[in-house]
Amino acid sequence: MHLPPNATPFERPLEQVAFHRTELSVILSLYGRMVAAGEWRDYGISHQRDVAVFSVFRRTAEVPLYRIEKRPKLRNKQGIYAVIGTGGQVLKRGSELRAVLRVLERKLIRAVDLD
User: Fold this and answer.
1) Geometric angle at alpha carbon 81, from 109 and 32, rounded to 5°
2) Pairing state between β 42-47 and 52-57
3) Which end of the chain, N or C, is surrounded by fewer C-beta atoms within 10 Å?
4) Quick check: 47 pLDDT over 60?
């Protein structure tokens, strides 16, 4: 970030973590398949200073079923992406978004299974 030398702290742009277009494409592809299967019905996106969160809901008024988080500060430790369940348990964490989302794709296979 390049700032003029005389910029005050109030003139500096706020830094936020956000999902990139390619990341959102991967997430929304999975979301669309889960909506088609009748598992998910709504989502919300929030961008904060240290984390970007894509929350998935079964119904709008409920707590999220899953949260897909992007935390760049964890890039060299546990991985930048995580899928977190309703109770706050980490279901999968890693550096590759597609690999992390596979934990949710398994649930899609069960939802469509015709046993």
Assistant:
1) 40
2) antiparallel
3) C
4) yes
